[in-house]
Amino acid sequence: MSKSPRLRVGIGYDSHRFESGRPLILGGQSIPFAQGLKGHSDADAVSHALTDAILGASGAGDIGRLFPDDDPAWKDADSLDLLRLAVRHVAAVGWAPVQVDVTVIIERPKLASHIPAMEQGLAQVLGLDTSLVNVKAKTNEGMGWIGRGEGVAVIAVATVEAR
Ligand code: MG
What we know:
five-stranded mixed β-sheet; single chain; 7 strands; binds magnesium ion
């Protein structure tokens, strides 16, 4: 049998549609904007993509399997809590986050001023130093559904190590 690696990498992706009358929550931060994101939970696509990256790296399934969106327990859930539970879940199977990197693809609003708070909040949940949590945002140059401001997409990569 081959030796199991001590470090593993996972990728996560999430997207949510903008909807009026909801707060915009990304990376656990409430961001002033005319619209929020539609979803069963708080629709925090950053936390969701990151959760999937960590679960994927740990070979521990995915966010939908852990937190089914037809389960009333997760209605309007704070997605940082879901991320926290996912970290606990992978710890139980022997993995701990080492470092994460996130790209948010969003036409508006500009996120730059919110990114330090996102990184700090996520780092706290992940049990990591802030320097090991990187979040960046970019537009889609006006192209397609993101460019038209219909929604947001997030890609996350996480490294985990054997505990
Ligand atoms: Mg989601």
